[in-house]
Model the fold of this input.
Amino acid sequence: MRRFPSRRTVLQSTATAGLVAIAGCTSAASDASNTTTSNAPATDTPTSDGECESTPTYTPASELTPPESLDTWLEDANGYDGEPKWTGVGRADVRVGHESDDGLAFAPAVVEVPPGTNVRWEWTGHGGAHNVVAFDGTFDSGRPNAQSGTSYHYIFDEVGAYPFVSEPDREDGMKGAVIVKEPPSTGYETVDEWVVHSSNFDGSVTDRTGADTARITVGAEGNGGNFAFAPPVLKVSPGTSVVWEWNGEGGAHNVAFRSADISSEALTPEPGTTFEHTFEESGIYRYACEPHVALGMRGAVIVE
Done:
């Protein structure tokens, strides 16, 4: 994987609130020509009462040394729990100025996306004036802006890692990254589209064909906590009994299938709880924990 791709074509950024001078204060962005300003001067940013306050000067990201290790550099990134957020869709949204960390955070801080994804940064208005700038200049939203509703987007076509910062706030930990990678694949499209949202899915299939029983852990580590099934994808033969066993981690879970009348029904956090189902017919069976499906707590059973 090339860590810092060199593509510099920038799409026209959109600014619903306008990256322009407002209320007599200078808070403007570049015209999407991807020009980086050297020795950026102080700018005035409107406060909530309409007054202007000065934003300190900062060193442009283009003049900083790119990180040697992305993982090490992200260790002090505000709002980052160590697990990139995989979007698995054609668009990913990132909040600029998340309410946590005094508004000095991106949310999510790190996203993993497939090539061709349109990543859109949305300003919340929290934490003062921010911008979004890649270290190698691949994308640049322009001068820092504090207006809620402002947005900027960029389509990532090339596989690689793209670290970025809010230039005025980089020393305070307002940093992030876009990681562009081919999505993991089992060879079963229906399965891939369903479990790609689960952080512990790597494209592998646990094969238990020929076995009488197979087991799945409920509450395994993943998706920012204990919100995963392990293994996330299981392959069995017709007539195999699959047993889901709760480990007591991550709160109350259940097992509910999509497009099949199979469910453990009640939510429970109790360790040692089990749910069993025997699969008689071939097919692809998708399931999830209903309270945590949005987090990525999903799984699939392939019967063939």
